[in-house]
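2024-03-11 09:14:02 DEBUG pipeline.ingest accepted 1 chain
2024-03-11 09:14:02 DEBUG pipeline.ingest length=139
2024-03-11 09:14:03 DEBUG pipeline.predict start
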Amino acid sequence: MNNKERIFHAALFEVIALAIIIPVSSMITGKETSELAIVGVGLSLFTVVWNYFYNIGFDRIFGEDRTGRSLTLRIAHTAGFEGGMIFITVPTVAWFLGISIFNALLLEAGFLVFFFFYATGFNWLYDRYQPYKLMAIKS
């Protein structure tokens, strides 16, 4: 994956995730969608940077051929990524929303479940259909 495709991949991932997670989080927490959008966009910006460097490292270790990756490797990829994110997201969410670390951890647990399945499915579909390459062919 070249740098342009990595940026496209990360941005597409985050935009779709925010469109799902902000309204659902608002319904669950009772917080305003505008407040959750600020948290979501801020964390998404961090996530895009983390995603970029994490995937470069992952590809160096496991190779560039993503289409042949097993489900086990995809699950390990997602678990490693989300494990790294938890160290930033929990204290940030607790601080910004004015909730306890425990409540932020509960909220994060919901996010982890969502993103575990979302990331696995998104990356599988992305690798299978490679929209960035399809766009380049049409150009």
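2024-03-11 09:14:41 DEBUG pipeline.report The mean pLDDT is 87.
2024-03-11 09:14:41 DEBUG pipeline.predict end
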